[in-house]
Amino acid sequence: MSTKYLGWIQKATRFKTMLLAGTFALAPLAAPAQEAPVAEVVAADEQDELDSKAYAAESKAKMQKDMDAAIAMVEKMFDTASLPPIEPARLTLAQRTMNTLIPPGSLEKMIDALYGKMFKTIMTEIGGQSDLMLSIKTGVESDKIGALDAATKTRIADMFDPYRQEREDQVIGVIKPLISEALTDMEAPMRAGMAKAYARKFSAAQLTDLNSFLATPTGSVYANEWMALQADPEVMVSVMKALPPLITKFMERGPQIEKDMKELPKEKQLSDFSDKELASLAKLMKVDVQVLKDQRDMWKTDAVDAAGDAADYTDSTNTAADAAADAADAAADAAAAATDYGSDDPAYDRSNWSEAERQRVADLQAAADAASSAALEAEIEAVSKARDRLIANAPE
Q: Please, are residues 21 and 343 in contact by the beta-carbon 8 Å criterion?
């Protein structure tokens, strides 16, 4: 079991601690008074608070930018600007329909059908008493743990964490109100969007019929239950049971699907362009052809280096790619371990770092991510070309 996976599970069981870590941003740690005059301590605290607020504002702005980009992509995928206007009377009928079908609290009712079962089950599985978690913590095979009775498992889990139930209750107490608030905020825009969709899909006469039905006793029951029924245990179990046959069909028909997929020429890279093609491209892009030539030559150099790495890969299992992967895993494991330790140590809270320290770590992380992506792209290209060569040189 990798420390990465163990770290994720352990962090899940300490969710309250992670939530509380955010409070450090609003309450910087004060330096011991004996280390500096009072005036300097106050000044340092004020600077820490300013740094914390600046870091929080920067993080919030970045998150908002990412969300705006995601929303813009969704708006592009589901363009509504070209749709014809909706008749006001028809929209009013649809709004009445949605007010009945999505009354206040209906989204939370649907989630509760899952929340009380699924979330509780997940918390039990990762909370320390499951066979998997006890196996991870003790190193004893899970089948041996599975042979133990429930009371024994509970006693073992209590030896590691006698406050498991209190911890779970705290997590639920923190998360559930937040989910309820979020779902309440979602209901109004959901009703508005659904009303427009219904107004476009159904005629005024059909909407009138729907509203008449929903006004009946049976219609009222249906309106109150239709959304929660989407998460009914019978529905969830039936859908999950239908997945394995679907996956099996794809696996069985894999060879035929692969046969039916026609082989097409690969996409050209800049390194494949001739001087004449580069000149045409430069004219279209309105740039100096030398800019493209320099870029092309760089691509060719990288491709040669990548091909050499691919050749080394076919000669030995102890490759640079393996070493890089091992190093990446080790770095990830170290990061997970540091995060696990840091979740209980306020010194790991970046709001307690100086701006220069935060920037240095961010720059190094960005450089590492860029290097990792470049290495992966080079490896994929090298493997693809090596495979083409091996197929071309294979005996008839």
A: yes
